[in-house]
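Lay summary. Proteins are chains of building blocks that fold into shapes, and those shapes determine what they do. In this project we predict the shape from the chain. Here is one chain we studied, written as its sequence of building blocks.
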Amino acid sequence: MDLEMPATPTELVNLIKGLYKLPEDTSKKAISALKGQLYIDFLFMPCAYGAIFLLCMLVSAKMQWPFGVNVFIILAWLQVVPWLCDIIENIYLLGKIKPDPVLSAPSVHKAYLWMEYIKWGIALGSAIGAVAAICYFWLAGHYDVHSLRYLGIIAAEIILFLLAGKIFLKKKKEEA
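And here is the predicted shape, written in a compact code that computers can read:
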């Protein structure tokens, strides 16, 4: 989270410089792990935002009120925005990870933070709203057994992401 929401441009630069000041072996491992996590995040993004999309679409299909249907359809399609923000964030951070990172202008840093707020706000707001609606449906007795397949899709996405991470780490250890 320190990389995602640094208080100042200097904090981000100091954090990255600090990785390079570690003992050489530890520094290489830390930098490699950080870059690897940012690259793996590109695989995680479609799974995470896709799951939120599916969740919101499922909720919109269960809604009986046109307003609720429209709200959850909009929240579903809005997942494109945090996905794009996440892509931009990772590209930005990957460009910063070097021994002597460049300090961002205050306006760039402020734009970066706003992008993070938008990303987290839309994604978390949509997920929390959809989960709350599903909880309401379950408590009200409006639960369909066939909707369990969506839970299976989300579980499969999580398993695939975890396996990709394990494979990536294994490759990195073999290279080292």
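What the prediction tells us: The CA atoms of residues 125 and 162 lie 24 Å apart.
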